[in-house]
TrEMBL record:
Short name of any one Pfam family annotated for the protein: adh_short
Keyword field contains DNA damage: no
Keywords: Oxidoreductase
Lineage per the UniProt record: Bacteria, Pseudomonadati, Pseudomonadota, Gammaproteobacteria, Alteromonadales
Protein name as it appears in the record: Oxidoreductase
């Protein structure tokens, strides 16, 4: 798919991967619909995009999935057409499973899973009417494997990958493409903004994230995956890139390493 003149709706566009992706897609000539909760930050991102006048801001809260259908339907009367939805907005979770409160697990699932599927289900009828569209989701390597200190997060990412694989099987016949994006560690605010087990903000830059790939590199690889109409892409370096391969071909070794690794962030 050539991104020029396409309309790309990106959730979580105020920061990190979503912001870098908005910038990268606008350079390819795409019109961007920017969404997240922080309108002020979205305005700043919008003004930094190529051809900044043509892009739109639609504030929304993925933690309120039952409100998203009406919001999308209303916004579509202004937007007109969406070629690509990027379900990118998300929240991290740091802490052992047994220390993480149930309401925190639920909040992570609400944003990362229900928020994403609510956006998808709201936009699908428009895409099916168009006879084409792409649903791209920034899941995670944590949606393909499990490790320490991220059970709720990993569960939400496994769930969204499972949902999207089923959606692809159902909607290919209607011209809908589904791309699962699985980054490893990327230098963003994800750990800073993550929940601790008690629901407070983690507020620390995890060393794994600080040592991850540059956010611009991640965005460029997402653009390439969209251009090549990929179904799934793993993005990263080192162990965060290779872990799903090790898990697939040497599952016993992977499980031993995952259990031995001594970290809590
Ligand atoms: N960084 C990594 O290493 C990494 C690795 C794998 C996957 N990911 C995934 O990449 C995606 C983007 O994260 P990031 O790394 O760029 O982190 P980030 O810098 O913290 O950005 C998160 C984005 O999600 C938005 N968001 C959070 N809660 C929201 C809500 N309730 N409603 C609407 N928007 C919400 C935030 O916007 P507002 O605060 O303005 O609402 C922000 O734009 C997430 O899905 C994350 O799980 C990240």
């Amino acid at each position: 798919m050539n991104l020029a003149n396409k309309t790309i709706w990106i959730t979580g566009a105020s920061s990190g991967i979503g912001k870098a992706l908005a910038i990268a897609c606008s350079k390819q000539g795409a019109r961007i619909v920017l969404s997240s909760r922080n309108t002020e930050a979205l305005e700043q991102v919008k003004s930094s995009l190529t051809s900044s006048q043509q892009h739109l801001i639609v504030p929304l809260d993925l933690a309120q999935p039952e409100q998203l259908n009406e919001l999308v339907v209303n916004a579509m009367s202004q937007i007109g057409r969406v070629d690509v939805l990027v379900n990118n907005g998300g929240i991290g979770q740091r802490g052992f499973a047994c220390e993480t409160q149930l309401d925190v697990q639920r909040k992570v699932m609400e944003v990362n899973y229900f928020g994403a599927i609510a956006m998808t289900q709201a936009l699908l009828p428009f895409m099916k009417q168009q006879g084409q569209g792409t649903i791209a989701t920034v899941a995670s390597v944590a949606g393909l494997i499990g490790g320490k200190s991220m059970a709720g997060y990993s569960a939400s990412k496994h769930a969204i990958i499972g949902y999207m694989d089923c959606l692809r099987a159902e909607e290919t016949i209607n011209g809908i493409k589904v791309l699962n994006i699985c980054p490893g560690f990327v230098q963003t605010q994800i750990s800073v903004n993550a929940f601790r087990g008690d629901g407070s903000k983690f507020d620390e830059m995890a060393s794994s994230i600080a040592n991850g790939i540059a956010v611009e590199d991640c965005a460029d690889q997402i653009v390439t995956a969209l251009e090549k109409d990929k179904a799934q892409v793993i993005i990263g370096k080192g162990i965060s890139y290779w872990a799903p391969t090790v898990y697939r071909f040497f599952p016993a070794i992977f499980r031993r390493l995952a259990a031995a690794k001594n970290y809590r962030e």
